[in-house]
Amino acid sequence: MAEPSSIxxxxxxxxxxxxxxxxHGAGAAMDSPFMNVMAAALGGRGIRVARFEFPYMHARRExxxxxxxxxxxxxxxxxxxxxxxxxxxxxxIGGKSMxxxxxSMIADExxxxxxxxxxxxxxxxxxxxxxxxxxLAGLRTPALIVQGTRDTLxxxxxxxxxxxxxxxxxxxxEDGDHSFKPRAASGRTERGxxxxxxxxVARFVLGLP
Length: 209
Prior knowledge:
By secondary structure, the chain is of the alpha/beta class. The protein is built from six helices and seven strands; from the N terminus they run E-E-H-E-H-H-E-H-E-E-H-E-H. A seven-stranded mixed sheet has the order 1-3-2-4-5-6-7, with helices on both faces. Helix 1 crosses helix 6 (190-207) and helix 3 (71-84) crosses helix 4.
């Protein structure tokens, strides 16, 4: 599937703020409720947030229903949008689930300032043996992963046994799922978890050299 010649980008936050480029997860677009809330809140903290879509999601807006693009297309889409935005050297890159995973695969290559993953898919649901962590062991880019403790794509118990780069910091949201939503019985709220995620991401992005 060919990429659109110019990738549409949504912006939040001040034009002069540090740049954070976010890609969406496999099943929801760049303007999903999760992405809208996170981008608006981070923009309100002085960060220039840019969001884009992979070609398959762009095609869905035009009426077709393709599955996610293959990894090479996803990687090249990331590189294309970074080129469109002026390069990676001044950008923190990342995103929700798959979007953050693909960003993590190119972060060192493109020389990104930092990496932010909002719910990293360490393995497919119900398939803990199929790890997506090999490249994370040697990651050189400063990285932040915000993860729910009961994420079915990588719980706290799962991740404890993985070999990850010392450049990676993981912030755990107690009882959160893959979208940070906790169970009512936990006494925590989805809104509270998202606010915590915004706070830690903002500190990370604003604190990078």
